[in-house]
Design a protein that fits this description.
alpha/beta, six-stranded parallel beta sheet, TIM Barrel, single chain, binds zinc ion
């Protein structure tokens, strides 16, 4: 089976808490070894930016995780490759094709020139904030819940111009609508579920889901138990529940995977990336055509990135 997953924190975990443990071994939910059964595997690896880093500390942290990811590509040729252009986005025979994202615009350190620099480093998706506020705007847990700053607005325009996907996961509701107003390119919520089913500010309202659907963006299903169910007692069926709900709102062309592997507690009946096969089977047992299941597991994200990020 094919998989295109919009979010995991494996690089951050390996580069920091696990002291540089390599990708073949990986972290808790994902490794090159454990994903090797996949036929066509595209995986977004996030450089997660903790909210306590700002300015030079943020830059230093970003560079550390970025360099770690590049080291893996050197260590495992044929198994792991960083996608930077249309040619490497196409099937090159490499097992795991990685797209680098930054989870937290603090990596820009308030410097507009750094958007281009991150692009040159291979970054193709930026999650504008993490939970707190940063130079770009407020995250979902920021006290005032403000939208984007002037710097954040400019950053979105620059990302549009360069071909970096704008990600609203973790952003405040006001920030979401600012992005909707400013972004000329469809934007994504890389790892967020439906707020109607699980009332968590990290999830999307019906109206937000409608905006992303109508623009042709992406919504990645997040496996984090606290975004699946209020009581956190989640199983794979809860992922299906959110998927069915999103589909009922017209997300058949925007729904995809945003596992959050190695960044959260996942459902008790899953162990990691190897569980995607079983999840796929569950989807087939829904009232879903195989074609639709393939769209959710890979094709929707593939189409988006081909169209807006890795244009031929
Ligand atoms: Zn996250």
């Amino acid at each position: 089976m094919d998989l295109f997953d919009l979010h995991c924190d494996t690089a951050f975990e390996c580069a920091t808490r696990l002291n540089g443990r390599d990708f073949r071994e990986g972290a808790w939910h994902l490794s090159l070894e454990r994903g090797s059964y996949l036929e066509n595997w595209r995986q977004v690896f996030a450089v997660f930016m903790p909210d306590e880093y700002r300015g030079r500390d943020a830059v230093r942290h970003y560079e550390k995780v970025r360099d770690y990811i590049y080291r893996q590509a050197k260590l495992f040729p044929g198994e792991f490759e960083i996608v930077r252009n249309a040619a490497s986005f196409r099937d090159t025979g490499t097992k795991c094709r990685a797209i680098i994202s930054v989870e937290g615009g603090s990596a820009l350190a308030g410097d507009p020139a750094r958007v281009q620099l991150l692009y040159n480093n291979g970054v193709r998706l930026i999650t504008l904030t993490w939970n707190d506020s940063n130079e770009l705007g407020d995250g979902v847990r920021a006290e005032k819940g403000r939208g984007l700053t002037a710097f954040g607005r400019n950053a979105v325009r620059e990302m549009n111009r360069l071909g970096i996907a704008v990600d609203v996961s973790h952003l405040s509701d006001a920030g979401f609508y600012d992005v909707a107003e400013i972004s000329e390119v469809p934007f994504v919520a890389s790892h967020s579920n439906a707020r109607r089913l699980c009332a968590n500010a990290r999830n999307l309202t019906d109206e937000m889901i409608g905006v992303i659907n109508s623009r042709g963006g992406l919504i990645g299903l997040n496996f984090c138990v606290s975004f699946l169910r209020a009581d956190e007692n989640a199983g794979m069926t809860d992922i299906l529940r959110h998927a069915e709900y999103l589909l009922s709102l017209g997300s058949e062309n925007s729904l995809c995977m945003g596992s959050d592997f190695d960044g959260c507690d996942i459902p008790q009946d899953m162990s990691g990336i190897e569980s995607m096969e079983e999840l796929y089977e569950h989807f087939l047992r829904l009232n879903c055509s195989e074609d639709l299941v393939k769209k959710i597991f890979s094709r929707n994200a593939e189409n988006y990135f081909r169209k807006y990020i890795f244009e031929e």
